[in-house]
TrEMBL record:
Protein name per Swiss-Prot or TrEMBL: Uridylate kinase
Subunit structure: Homohexamer.
Catalytic reaction annotation: UMP + ATP = UDP + ADP
EC number, UniProt record: 2.7.4.22
Family: Belongs to the UMP kinase family.
């Protein structure tokens, strides 16, 4: 018998920036194909998977606002960028024979379903992968906050953020070679140290609702499966 996964229903946050790999823009096909294999492996273990995708590889509202453009319009463009990434993920997952539904916080009925909480849960129960796009549907938020919100709404057992770094460090590991990675951290410690890898709104939401969070490296093969089995990869954030 296979050992049972630690987490039965997982919300996976894929940051847009991580999807572009070494490219300057867009999606690196090699990365999404590999991710699709990891997600297939999770399904084979019977794990229910919802995915929130970011959009930073295509567009961020903040940048344009700094250049003088309306922030809300920029954020709407950013939310639309997450729809594009979600459609790409849908395609690669379907190519692997998985059943997938894209659900958007912004209604785009010609392209995908709208997010309806009870319907999303039903899809998961039927074994479908649910890709949640459009972030929270509101400007001034991030897809990390969207991921926390949706993880709580769909009653996931954990929110896993897969990104370019392999966990939460006490300093920026890119700038400081002496930076140390935490295996485990409390919500408040993560907030106090203003560790850039996750935004404060996302952490507070998970803290207040008791949703465990994990940060793992998107590039390490099999990391996702190991994380879901409860192995100590990345950084776990809990009370
Ligand atoms: N965005 C937004 N509201 C949300 C989620 C995202 O306005 O609830 C916009 C925002 O402009 C953001 C962009 O969409 O910069 C892309 O999302 P994010 O930066 O979170 O993507 P990631 O960092 O994961 O690539």
């Amino acid at each position: 018998d296979q050992p049972a996964p630690r987490y039965q229903r997982v919300l996976l946050k894929l940051s847009g920036e991580a999807l572009m790999g070494d490219q300057a823009f867009g999606i690196d096909p090699a990365i999404i194909f590999r991710l699709a294999d990891d997600i297939l492996a999770l399904r084979a273990m019977g794990v229910e998977v919802a995915i929130v995708v970011g959009g930073g590889n295509i567009f961020r509202g903040e940048g344009l606002a700094k250049a003088g453009m309306d922030r809300v319009t920029g954020d709407q463009m950013g939310m639309l960028a997450t729809v594009m990434n979600g459609l790409a993920m849908q395609d690669v997952l379907e190519q692997r024979g998985l059943e997938v539904r894209v659900m958007s916080a912004l209604s785009i009925p010609a392209v995908c379903e709208s997010f309806i909480r009870r319907r999303a849960i039903r899809h998961l129960e039927k074994g479908r992968i649910v890709i949640l796009v459009g972030g929270t549907g509101n400007p001034f938020f991030t897809t990390d906050s969207g991921a926390s919100l949706r993880a709580i709404e769909i009653q996931a057992n954990i929110m896993i953020k897969a990104t370019k770094v392999d966990g939460i460090y006490n300093a920026d590991p890119v700038k400081d070679p002496a930076a140390r990675r935490y295996d485990q951290l409390t919500y408040n410690a993560a907030l106090d140290q203003r560790l850039g890898v996750m935004d404060a709104t996302a952490i507070v939401l998970c803290r207040d609702q008791g949703m465990p969070m994990m940060v793992i490296d998107i590039h390490a093969p099999n990391n996702l499966v190991r994380a879901v089995m409860g192995e100590p990869v990345g950084t776990l954030v809990t009370a």
